[in-house]
Amino acid sequence: MKLRVVDFETTGTPEDRQRGKAVGIVEAAFCDVDEAGIVSRPTTMLVNPGIAIPPEARAVHHISDDMVAGAIDPGKACMILMDGMEPGDIFCAHHAEFERSFFAGGAFPWICTMKCAKHLWPDAPSFSNQALRYYLNLEEDFARSELTLPPHRAGPDCYVTAHILARQMLMKHPQKLIELTGAPVLQLTVRFGQNYGKTWEEMDFGFLDWCVNKAAHIDAEAKHTARHWLNQSRGLAGTPFA
Does domain 2-182 bear CATH number 2.60.40.1600? Predict the structure, then answer.
């Protein structure tokens, strides 16, 4: 069994696509992680998305139209990502929902390292790729630290993600990580508004009820957590931490 960690740099987001804007991949990379947690050197490829790269996307990854002019097309890049995958293997990404919006990965299951991090390290100050890198002190794990730079490029980012995954594999079997990827996250602390940083457990009934029934702009994880503690206050069963 191998776990293939993938990362994309793109011209935009899935939300841009939902608004009718053309969005494509400009760079793809992968690292393989074996069952012992050994991380391979990343394989990186520039990709020609067939559309212009907007300035706001270039501001993140600094990839230009000239750089991808002679690059492979997205279909070829996805074929390369599939090459060598065998029954029992797993795809992984730090924000798997994002990567899967560009590349389904066939019938292989996925692990989202960001989602698993929220289950396994709920008190982390942030769940971004780079924040977890330093929170977990991954520097001591990197065989070649130069492969982690620059950030916001597909190769370095997937190399960091692969090491986050290796740490998670020390705590949970990959099959359990697949399960955590699909499980709703129960947050420890409120991450918005005037109650930012306070624990959900100490929130009163009125605030919890507002989050569940009236708040329109809080994310699904916050609403799920509010519903859990609201049920607790009513004496109903809730969802335990992983």
Answer: no
Cα(233)–Cα(126) distance, integer angstroms? 28
Helices (H) and strands (E) in the chain, counts: 11, 5
> Which strand ranges, in their side-by-side order, compose the sheet holding 90-93?
43-46, 25-34, 2-10, 90-93, 110-112
Q: Give the CA radius of gyration of the chain.
A: 19
pTM reported for the whole predicted model: 0.89
- 73: which residues sit within 8 A by CB, 6+ positions away? 47, 48, 50
C-beta separation of 133 from 1 below 8 A:
no
pLDDT digits (tens, 9 = 90+) for 158-212: 999 999 999 999 999 999 999 999 999 999 999 999 999 999 999 999 999 999 9
Q: How confident is the model at residue 237 (pLDDT cuts 50, 70, 90)?
A: low
Domain ranges, ordered by start, for the chain: 2-182, 193-233
> How far is the C-alpha of 137 from the C-alpha of 152, rounded, in Å?
19
How far is residue 27's CA from residue 239's CA, in Å, rounded to a whole number? 39
Q: Long-range contacts: 219-227, Cβ < 8 Å, 24+?
A: 220/184, 221/118, 221/184, 221/185, 221/187, 222/187, 222/190, 222/191, 222/192, 224/184, 224/185, 224/186, 225/185, 225/186, 225/187, 225/200, 226/200
Strand-pairing partners, residue 10, are: 25
Contact (Cβ atoms closer than 8 angstroms) between residue 18 and residue 189: no
| Alpha carbon of residue 79 to chain centroid | 21
Q: Which residue has the tokens 């991949």?
A: 25
